[in-house]
Specification:
Layout lengths: L6 H21 L1 H8 L15 H17 L1 H10 L2 H21 L3 H29 L5 H22 L5 H22 L4 H6 L3 H12 L3 H16 L13 H19 L2 H6 L1 H6 L7 H15 L7 H4 L1 H28 L10 H14 L5 H9 L5 H21 L1 H31 L8 H9 L1
Helix pairs in contact: 1-5, 1-6, 1-7, 1-8, 3-6, 3-20, 4-5, 4-6, 4-20, 5-6, 5-8, 6-7, 6-19, 6-20, 7-15, 10-11, 12-19, 12-20, 12-21, 12-22, 15-18, 17-18, 17-21, 19-20
Length: 455
């Protein structure tokens, strides 16, 4: 049984705080966009209500920044180390929240959202890599998915605080989270042994492992040899090396497709526009309370998977997640079909939207929320991992931009029911793809995973 008091666990929890910052920026729009539609200058600092097109840009520009973020920060992580790159990622978050708190102009809002997107894309690339490289093979899955707990806590914060605070006070409060991460991480966290060994700093790698494992130099020597063994046949990689071996090509294809299905399930649109979506349902439960319920469900279900990810495996959770989301979205679409297309009196079913979104969130959180990132961090060989994860992250945020920018357009073209049924169909395909093509990585070393992919 894993020792939760270990320094490795403390380090992972510390770095997870940066994940919280990222998901704060995702659900930031849910309570803020209704305020920006207000005519009351005491609520809306922009002085006028925003338009639907401006709403879509505020929601989606974070994804444009996230497309860019992985590449410079991946380069930085290879040159200066994982630790320094993670510390640098916190800076755009701090600046972004400062702008949103102090500057009252739409185009500065655009810039702040773009800037926070750069940090978000970079963090989603480097965070899983850092955690995978400080963890042991036996608990790598559990430690990797703890990140999802902090991601979902980040989702919860805007839902709980946003509707009840001014925009200025809200953003000042949020700026404290990346500041907390910076102070704790610079103080507590070591560089990863994988990075140090890649730079031939064997003594420093031993010191890092001694700190992480709480063991003597002689006791960590076996793990040093194991890491060296997994890396010694790997020459320094390049972006082109992603396509030169069968294992890396398969790793890239599986990771990209899993990440695309994650976004095509509609997750970004649902999280970005939660409060606005619930306002259209006509439910007896207020949109603010519905959003808080969703945030709480998102957070508490994220506590489940870390205890089972290394027991039951990634593949089972991914399939269960996909088919659960498919069912939930089909039900949500059926509600809008009854309400908006056949004009059925849905008063007696006013609880159905919150129930279907709760089912969706639970299913997402058990698999397709955290595990595509975990699996991606495990599949690539060490020499190209940073390039592979950067490309996967790029695809993720490109898909997220498409979904969030054109969500309102999809509603206009297909109706809300058609949009959610479309998302449901992608979830069905995700479950089938997982069953037929995704390998199980539970408890396997990086070297063993490469051997599986070469077959």
């Amino acid at each position: 049984m894993y020792k939760f008091c270990s320094y490795t666990f403390l380090t992972v929890i510390t770095v997870d705080i940066l994940g919280t910052c990222g998901d704060i920026t995702i659900t930031w729009t849910s309570p803020i966009l209704p305020k920006l539609y207000s005519n009351d200058s005491n609520i809306n600092p922009l002085g006028r209500p925003i338009t639907p097109d401006e709403e879509s840009w505020i929601g989606s520009l974070i994804n444009i920044g996230a497309l860019i973020g992985p590449f410079p920060f991946s380069f930085l992580s290879e040159k200066l180390g994982r630790k320094i790159s993670l510390l640098c990622i916190s800076v755009p978050y701090i600046i972004s929240f400062g702008i949103l708190a102090l500057v009252q102009h739409l185009y500065w809002y655009y810039f702040a959202r773009f800037l926070s997107g750069i940090a978000l894309g970079a963090a989603c690339t480097i965070l899983p890599l850092y955690i995978a490289e400080v963890a042991e093979d036996s608990n790598r899955g559990m430690l990797s998915v703890t990140l999802n707990i902090f991601w979902t806590f980040g989702n919860l914060i805007p839902y709980v605080l946003g509707p009840y605070m001014s925009i200025v006070a809200f953003n000042v409060t949020l700026a404290c989270v990346p500041l907390l991460f910076f102070v704790l991480f610079v103080t507590l966290a070591p560089e990863t042994p994988y990075y140090l060994i890649s730079k031939n700093s064997i003594d420093k790698a031993e010191e890092s492992l001694m700190k992480l494992r709480g063991r003597s130099r002689s006791m960590v020597s076996k793990e040093i040899i194991h890491i060296q063994s997994s890396m010694k046949q790997e020459k320094k990689g390049s972006f082109g090396d992603l396509f030169k071996t069968k294992a890396n090509r398969k790793a890239l294809a599986i990771s990209v497709i899993l990440m695309s299905f994650q976004q095509l399930s509609g997750i970004s649109a649902i999280l970005f526009y939660t409060q606005l979506i619930f306002e259209t349902t006509g439910s007896n439960i207020s949109a603010e309370i519905s959003s808080i319920i969703i945030g709480l469900v998102l957070f508490f279900t994220s506590l489940i998977i870390p205890f089972f990810a290394d027991r039951l495996g990634r593949k089972l959770f991914l399939m269960f997640s996909a088919f659960g989301m498919m069912t939930a979205l089909a039900i949500f679409g059926a509600f809008f079909y009854m309400k908006d297309t056949v004009y059925y009196d849905v008063t007696s079913f006013s609880w159905l939207p919150i129930l279907s979104v709760v089912l969706y969130i639970v299913s997402l959180n058990l698999g397709f929320g955290p595990l595509p990132w975990t699996v991606s961090s495990e599949l690539f060989s060490p020499n190209v991992k940073s390039f592979g994860i950067s490309l996967v992250s790029f695809i993720c945020w490109f898909d997220s931009f498409i979904v969030t920018k054109f969500f309102n357009d999809l509603n206009d073209i297909f109706g809300k029911e058609g949009t959610f049924w479309l998302f449901s169909g992608f979830c069905l395909l995700a479950g089938l793809f997982t069953f037929f093509f995704v390998p199980e990585t539970k408890g396997k070393s990086f070297q063993e995973i490469q051997e599986i992919l070469e077959k």
